[in-house]
């Protein structure tokens, strides 16, 4: 099966084009560092061909780990006989930036005898501003076919599909003219070509500058940043509440309708206690994961995320990090694993290592069900100003902020105690143009992210839930949970968590959550489901409120989950990316001990205040 390479610089719309041509759902955003590995998929119009998407890179002289991936794969792909042709995507609104890389790609394609086509993306932006790109002149100067397209609107993609459907014609390949040209000459050539054939970018720059004057201002920029971050976390409760109520109501209705129809008592108890009380309790919180991913997608695609990274650069420097650490850290809010991959975009190996240490402390979506459960159980659901301000949203913002600050404090301490063996590179970040987010791909990404979260976590939760139910139901068939196998196991781990004011039930839930944090919710749901088999099977919050769990214990649990590293998948990826099992083991043990100590302190202080 033949292959087609898709390569381009960051922010050029490469992933969006890849999604359009393949029908896949590769993540799309408007800042460097999104595509951190090589993706591939069959072309929708030409199923017998594979389109290979490379990470964005500014040059074939790699600096960051992300660029190393792109350059290494590209060099090997050019030697692959199955590679039929190369598509090099350029940003028509920033021609000079794209052309240096394009000339390098053309040169390497000439050396390896590969046909190349240049795709000038974002032609719709030029049309909207009355600007023009001299496509014919640029094509003649490059001795290479240039096609104007818009990956967002789909303009010009028919010509791309038609091109890919044909077999490469050596007679139409460009005339070799750059094979022996050094990069220093290519840089000057890119400047001349952009000036000669490119659009007048003053209009686009003036629009971006006006917005930057507000979002990057020393006062309005900081205020808008904190306001946007607060609205992000407030929306987790406000926007998702109707969907959560709908899921909870649907599960309760389905349980009431289905369980009585089951004749066998064992099957009936398993369905109500394990499925509806255990797994159902977890599903209630999935809408919040969708909202979180959706809002972050809006910020990414609009171009604001790069500005947020620039705003955060100075404060992050105090903790040994860089502004480029902000993007992987915020990606870790959705999931630590893509955050760790995104850290490849950080040039400095030392700052990359420190970012690895901070990412697991970011409040990922796996923590979200736990936070939501505990906040709903202890914080009043009162709102003002039409839902704009609420105590639960403020509590969520506080615990998210706490986790982020703990990550910064730890990296700050490590950066001051560990000797620097690397020469740090200067902080350079491209500010992409502001754009209206594409709602459809963002919704699709949020949906896929939520679906992936459910399918990935669902397997673990189902396995643990079944195990917890079996241990809690036998040998007395749920008559006395304390005397069950689970109760006996719980009493063994209870001394570890009793200093937090937690009984064996919560100790078991914490213990199982080391497989994955979100298992905590499913485990508690199963335990309380067995205890209250005749009560409501879904509202886990009510069970916790009726269990007389102290406020100090609830806050201690929030702090414990904010700091502890309880994700096997994250540990595996961290060991692979950092190439250090020692660092991974130290982080796992160190974060657990820190989380445990901090949780005890919070519990005792709260109990002292409450009298």
Automatic annotation (TrEMBL):
<feature type="transmembrane region" description="Helical">
    <location>
        <begin position="555"/>
        <end position="575"/>
    </location>
</feature>
<feature type="transmembrane region" description="Helical">
    <location>
        <begin position="391"/>
        <end position="414"/>
    </location>
</feature>
<feature type="transmembrane region" description="Helical">
    <location>
        <begin position="457"/>
        <end position="475"/>
    </location>
</feature>
<dbReference type="GO" id="GO:0005886">
    <property type="term" value="C:plasma membrane"/>
</dbReference>
<dbReference type="GO" id="GO:0005525">
    <property type="term" value="F:GTP binding"/>
</dbReference>
<dbReference type="InterPro" id="IPR030389">
    <property type="entry name" value="G_FEOB_dom"/>
</dbReference>
<feature type="transmembrane region" description="Helical">
    <location>
        <begin position="325"/>
        <end position="343"/>
    </location>
</feature>
<keyword id="KW-0472">Membrane</keyword>
<dbReference type="GO" id="GO:0015093">
    <property type="term" value="F:ferrous iron transmembrane transporter activity"/>
</dbReference>
<dbReference type="InterPro" id="IPR011640">
    <property type="entry name" value="Fe2_transport_prot_B_C"/>
</dbReference>
<dbReference type="InterPro" id="IPR050860">
    <property type="entry name" value="FeoB_GTPase"/>
</dbReference>
<keyword id="KW-0812">Transmembrane</keyword>
<feature type="domain" description="FeoB-type G">
    <location>
        <begin position="1"/>
        <end position="170"/>
    </location>
</feature>
<dbReference type="Pfam" id="PF07670">
    <property type="entry name" value="Gate"/>
</dbReference>
<protein>
    <recommendedName>
        <fullName>Ferrous iron transport protein B</fullName>
    </recommendedName>
</protein>
<dbReference type="InterPro" id="IPR011642">
    <property type="entry name" value="Gate_dom"/>
</dbReference>
<feature type="transmembrane region" description="Helical">
    <location>
        <begin position="274"/>
        <end position="299"/>
    </location>
</feature>
<dbReference type="Pfam" id="PF02421">
    <property type="entry name" value="FeoB_N"/>
</dbReference>
<feature type="transmembrane region" description="Helical">
    <location>
        <begin position="214"/>
        <end position="233"/>
    </location>
</feature>
<feature type="transmembrane region" description="Helical">
    <location>
        <begin position="355"/>
        <end position="379"/>
    </location>
</feature>
<dbReference type="InterPro" id="IPR006073">
    <property type="entry name" value="GTP-bd"/>
</dbReference>
<dbReference type="Pfam" id="PF07664">
    <property type="entry name" value="FeoB_C"/>
</dbReference>
<feature type="transmembrane region" description="Helical">
    <location>
        <begin position="587"/>
        <end position="606"/>
    </location>
</feature>
<dbReference type="InterPro" id="IPR027417">
    <property type="entry name" value="P-loop_NTPase"/>
</dbReference>
<keyword id="KW-1133">Transmembrane helix</keyword>
């Amino acid at each position: 099966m033949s292959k087609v390479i898709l390569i381009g610089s960051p922010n050029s719309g490469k992933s969006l084009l890849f999604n359009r041509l393949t029908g896949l759902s590769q993540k799309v955003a408007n800042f460097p560092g999104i595509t951190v590995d090589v993706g591939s998929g069959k072309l929708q119009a030409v199923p017998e061909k594979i389109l290979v998407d490379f990470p964005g890179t500014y040059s074939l002289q790699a600096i960051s780990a992300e660029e190393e991936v792109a350059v290494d794969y590209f060099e090997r792909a050019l030697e692959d006989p199955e590679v039929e042709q190369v598509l090099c995507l350029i940003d028509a609104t920033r021609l000079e930036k794209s052309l240096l890389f394009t000339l390098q790609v053309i040169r390497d394609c000439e050396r390896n005898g590969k046909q190349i086509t240049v795709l000038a993306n974002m032609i719709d932006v030029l049309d909207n501003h009355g600007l023009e790109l001299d496509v014919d002149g640029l094509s003649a100067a490059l001795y290479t076919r240039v096609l104007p397209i818009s990956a967002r609107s789909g303009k010009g993609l028919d010509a791309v599909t038609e091109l890919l459907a044909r077999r490469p014609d050596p007679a139409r390949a460009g005339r070799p003219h750059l094979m022996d040209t050094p990069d220093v000459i290519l840089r000057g050539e890119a400047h001349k070509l952009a000036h000669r054939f490119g659009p007048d970018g003053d209009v686009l720059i003036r629009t971006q500058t006006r917005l930057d004057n507000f979002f990057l201002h020393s006062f309005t920029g900081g205020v808008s940043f904190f306001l946007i971050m607060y609205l992000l976390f407030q929306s987790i409760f406000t926007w998702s509440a109707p969907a959560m109520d709908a899921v909870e109501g649907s599960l309760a209705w389905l349980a009431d309708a289905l369980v009585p129809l089951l004749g066998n008592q064992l099957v009936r108890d398993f369905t109500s206690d394990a499925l509806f009380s255990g797994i159902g309790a977890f599903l209630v919180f999935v809408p919040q994961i969708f909202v979180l991913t959706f809002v972050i997608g809006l910020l990414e695609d609009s171009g604001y995320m790069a500005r947020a990274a620039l705003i955060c650069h100075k404060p992050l420097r105090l903790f040994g990090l860089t502004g480029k650490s902000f993007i992987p850290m915020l990606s870790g809010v959705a999931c630590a694993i893509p955050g760790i991959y995104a850290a490849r975009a950080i040039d400095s190996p030392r700052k990359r290592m420190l970012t690895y240490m901070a990412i697991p402390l970011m409040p990922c979506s796996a923590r979200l069900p736990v936070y939501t459960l505990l906040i709903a159980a202890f914080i009043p659901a009162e709102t003002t100003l039409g839902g704009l301000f609420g105590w639960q949203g403020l509590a969520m913002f506080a615990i998210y902020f706490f986790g982020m600050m703990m990550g910064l404090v730890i990296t700050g301490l490590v950066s001051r105690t560990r000797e620097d063996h690397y020469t740090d590179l200067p902080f350079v970040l491209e500010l992409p143009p502001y754009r209206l987010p594409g709602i459809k791909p963002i919704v699709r990404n949020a949906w896929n992210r939520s679906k992936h979260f459910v399918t990935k976590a669902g397997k673990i939760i189902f396995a643990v839930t079944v195990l917890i139910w079996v241990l809690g139901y036998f040998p007395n068939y749920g008559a006395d949970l304390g005397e069950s196998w689970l109760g006996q196991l719980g009493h063994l781990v209870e001394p570890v968590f009793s200093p937090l004011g937690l009984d064996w039930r919560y100790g078991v839930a914490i213990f199982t959550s080391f497989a994955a944090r979100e298992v905590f919710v499913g485990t508690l749901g199963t335990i309380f489901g067995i205890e209250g088999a005749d009560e409501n099977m879904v509202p886990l919050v009510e069970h916790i409120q009726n269990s007389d769990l102290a406020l100090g214990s609830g806050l201690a649990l929030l702090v414990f989950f904010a700091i502890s590293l309880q994700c096997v998948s994250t540990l595996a990826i961290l060991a692979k990316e950092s190439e250090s099992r020692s660092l991974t083991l130290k982080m796992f043990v160190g974060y657990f001990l820190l989380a445990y100590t901090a949780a005890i302190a919070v519990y005792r202080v709260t109990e002292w205040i409450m009298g």
